[in-house]
Amino acid sequence: MTHTAFLAACRDAIGAAHVLTDPQDTAPFLTDWRRRYTGAACAVLAPATSAEAAALVKLAVEHRVALVPQGGNTGLAGGATPDASGAQAVISLRRLNRVRDIDPHNNTITVEAGVILAEVQKHAEAAGRLFALSLAAEGSCTIGGNLSTNAGGTGVLRYGNTRELCLGLEVVTPQGELWDGLRGLRKDNTGYDLRDLFIGAEGTLGLITAAVLKLHPQPAARVTALAALASPHAALDFLALTQRMAGPLLTGFELMSDFCVRLVGRHFEQMRYPFAEAHAQIVLLELSDSESEVHARTLFEGLMQTALEQGLVEDAVVAENLAQSRAFWNLREHIPLAQAEEGLNIKHDIAVPISCIGHFIEATDAAIAQAAPGARMVTFGHLGDGNLHYNVQAPEGVDATAFLRQHQSAINRIVYDSVAAHRGSISAEHGLGQLKIDDAARYKQDVELRMMRAIKQALDPLNLMNPGKVLR
C-alpha cells in the first residue's frame, strides 16, 4: 500500500520536518522499552498543537491510515508500538509539551500530553504544590502515556491512580474533532463521564492532547523507614496498624521479598542488605506530614514501638536525612534493574484484594515451585493498594532463554488462574497493550467484552485508533 498522498498532506499540515520517514529517524519510535516488540510504520508524525493533532487524525480518516499514539515510549505492554505491516503511522505527542496553566487556589495544573512527568512535578513544586504521581520512569514518561495506561506508582495508597489525579481532558476523537473537557471541577454531574472513558483506554478511543491535573499541598516533612517482617501476612497486619495510627499521613507502603533485596545487592554493590540478619519480607513505608518533622517522627516512633511490641515487625531502620530516605527508595526502584542484570524473567503486573495478598503469594509460589522446580520468585510491589509485581526468575545456573521457552506459558497460566481465583486483575498499572489481549479475553466475562467492543465500535467504527491493542 502506498501512502504518498497521505504523507504529502501530513507535510502540508505540520511541516515536512515533523513527518519522519527515514529509517534512522523512525527507528527509536518502533521498538518498545522492553525490546519485546518491534514494528514498522509508514511515518512518525509529530504535531506541535492540539489543532495539528486533530488535522492529522482527519487526514488519517480520509486516507484510512491507522494511528498509534506514543508518548515517552516507556510502556511495558507494547501498547505504543505499531504492528509489522508498515501501514500504520506513529503519532508522537512529545512536541505537545507546554504547561498551559497553574491555578494554586484551585490546586490544578493544566498540561499538554507530551509534558514529562518529572517536569509536572517540578512546576507544581515551584508553585508550592505537589503533583503526587511518582514512578520509576518519571524522567522520561509523559502525562499522555500516564493517562492512557492509568499509571499507578508509589503514591496510590494516599493519592490514587492517575485517574484520581485528573479532573479534565482535551481529546481528539477518532473523527478528528477536538473535545475540550478541560474543566477543573471536583463535581460535575451532567451525564456520562467521558473523561474516565479515555483514561486507561491506551489510545484506542481517542487521542489525549491535554489534561487538568490535581495538585496537593507540599508536605512539611517526610519520614521514611524500612521494616523487617516474617511474612506477607505480618505485613498486612502492619499495614492495618499503620493506617489506624497514621491515617492519611501514610503515603507509601512497599513490600519487597528477601530475594528482591539480595538481588539488588548482588548487582549494585553500593546497595547493601539493610539489616544484620535475613528477614523474609521488608516493607518500605513513608509518612508525609503537613505539620512538622518533629510531629511526623514522634508519630513514627510510636508506630514502630507498637509494631515491635505486637510482634509484627522484627527490626526497623528509620531514615535520618533526605539522602538516606532517597537510598531506601533507590533500593526499591533498583529491583527491576537488578532483575534485568540477572537475566530474562517472566513478569506479571497483577492486583488482588489487599486481604488476599498473603494467601495469593503462598498458593501461587507453591504451584510454580511444583511446575518449575528451582524457579526464583521476585515478588515486590505496592502492598497498600494490592498491586504486586510477581516475577519469576530462572533457577540459579539455568539458561534463562531456555527456561522461558519451556515454562513461560505454563507459569503465566498458573499466575493468572490464581489471580482470577482471588478475584483480581491480570494488569494493575501497566495496561494490556498487545501483550495481554488474549489473556484479558480469557479472564473477562463475555458481557464485559461485549460492552467494551460496543464502545470501541461506537467511537472508532473504522478501527483507526491504535488497532490491535486492548481488544481484538
UniProtKB/TrEMBL annotation:
Family: Belongs to the FAD-binding oxidoreductase/transferase type 4 family.
Keywords, alphabetical: FAD, Flavoprotein
One record GO biological process: respiratory electron transport chain
Gene3D superfamilies (UniProt xref): 3.30.465.10, 3.30.70.2190, 3.30.70.2740, Uridine Diphospho-n-acetylenolpyruvylglucosamine Reductase, domain 2, Vanillyl-alcohol Oxidase, Chain A, domain 4
Keyword Flavoprotein among record annotations: yes
Needed cofactors: FAD
One Pfam family this sequence matches: FAD_binding_4
InterPro entries: FAD-bd_oxidored_4_C, FAD-bd_PCMH, FAD-bd_PCMH-like_sf, FAD-bd_PCMH_sub1, FAD-bd_PCMH_sub2, FAD-linked_Oxase-like_C, FAD-oxidored/transferase_4, Oxid_FAD_bind_N
Species annotation: Paraburkholderia sprentiae WSM5005
Domain FAD-binding PCMH-type: 37-218
Protein name, as recorded: FAD-binding oxidoreductase
PANTHER family, alphabetized: BLL6224 PROTEIN (PTHR43716:SF2), D-2-HYDROXYGLUTARATE DEHYDROGENASE, MITOCHONDRIAL (PTHR43716)
GO MF, one annotated term: FAD binding
Keyword Flavoprotein in annotation: yes
